[in-house]
Amino acid sequence: MLQNRQGVTELPGSGRRVSWIVGRSYLRHNLFEVSEALPEAKRKSALGLLVRKWSPFPATGFSAQWAGNRASVYAWDSMQITQAVEAAGADLARCTIWPETFFRPPHTDGARLAAMTDGVEGQAWRQGLLVATRWWPSVPNARDWMLFLRGAGVDLSQAPAAVPTPLDSEILTAPWTVQATPITDIWGLVQNNQAAAIAAAAIAAPFLYFLTQAAVLSISTWQAKSTIAGMSAANQSVRTDRTGALTNLDTADSYLSLDNMPPQFELLGVAAALIKDRRVNISDWTFDNGNLDVVLQAQAPMEAPFFIEAFERDDHFSNVTATLGNQEKELHLKMQVEPKTWPTS
């Protein structure tokens, strides 16, 4: 059975066990990462808690593609799907819910536009893992496509600038994730909150995992504060040196000619102004030979396109890309810093 915005359609080949395929427009997608230290069975438990914390639905069902400790997850509104199943006269107990993407041929690496039954889906793949997606009701324009690529952290030099033609493929007879899903993946079979609550109550280990993560976060926060304090001290030294250098303009000019990049203090001030009033913090800052990596953290999910466009509009930066992580509360920005044109005497 296929459920999309046009209704519910019965597909050929249905057997005793019904595969209920949910159209892409009803799905939310995100990439999750759990601790590598967790045993495989406990990773599934941790993922279930992460998904339900992130999901916008009051009752959430989901299915995942695993690659090591990373999971590409599609989530849906369980109440909405249950109502559709019952309205179609199907037995919910005999149905396994699947996202439509898992019934379309997978990809290995790169970005593509895939045709779905109710629109198109932008996909970014890395080593066989679906790391980012976006749904549109019709083929997107060039700007939206480019924002998707940047938000997915795609290497723009390897991606076509023009919007690609949607790949139209047949619906598979079985989901391609089945062979990659371990038998122990009991959380992937849980389709309602009542069963999820029972399973969660029986497993106490995930709470130890979150306590460990909290300790790691505390250490990371201390390291970030130490780094910022070190940068502040370094900037003080730079200001002192600059005052001395300006006493001899010829000497200053000779130094400036060796490095045409803006000072980090200036770049940090610009970046701080761009994220002002967005309730985000800079947790990591790496500048090397014209390449700048910035990690932003927030208490709520962030919108990558906003920050990409904000940094792109500033004359200091170009070729900005972004990758979301930690339930969209961490944003890793990569960009190039434009050389500074120093005035000539």
* Radius of gyration based on Cα positions: 24 Å
> Strand order across the biggest sheet?
2-1-3-7
Number of helices: 8
Helix % is 25-40%
Short structural description:
Helices cover 33% and strands 28% of the residues. It is built from eight helices and 14 strands.
Ordered list of secondary-structure elements with their pairings:
Blueprint: E1 2-4, E2 7-9, E3 18-22, E4 28-33, H1 40-54, E5 60-67, E6 70-77, H2 78-87, E7 95-99, E8 110-116, E9 119-126, E10 129-136, H3 142-151, H4 193-201, H5 205-245, H6 249-256, H7 264-274, E11 280-288, E12 291-298, H8 304-313, E13 317-325, E14 330-337
Parallel strand pairs: 1-3, 3-7
Antiparallel strand pairs: 1-2, 4-6, 5-6, 8-9, 9-10, 11-12, 12-14, 13-14
Structure, explained:
The protein has 345 residues and is an alpha+beta fold. It contains eight helices and 14 strands. It has helices spanning 40-54, 78-87, 142-151, 193-201, 205-245, 249-256, 264-274, 304-313, and strands at 2-4, 7-9, 18-22, 28-33, 60-67, 70-77, 95-99, 110-116, 119-126, 129-136, 280-288, 291-298, 317-325, 330-337. The chain is elongated and about 85 Å long.
Please name the defining characteristics of this protein.
345 residues; alpha+beta; Gyrase A, domain 2; four-stranded mixed β-sheet; four-stranded antiparallel β-sheet; 14 strands
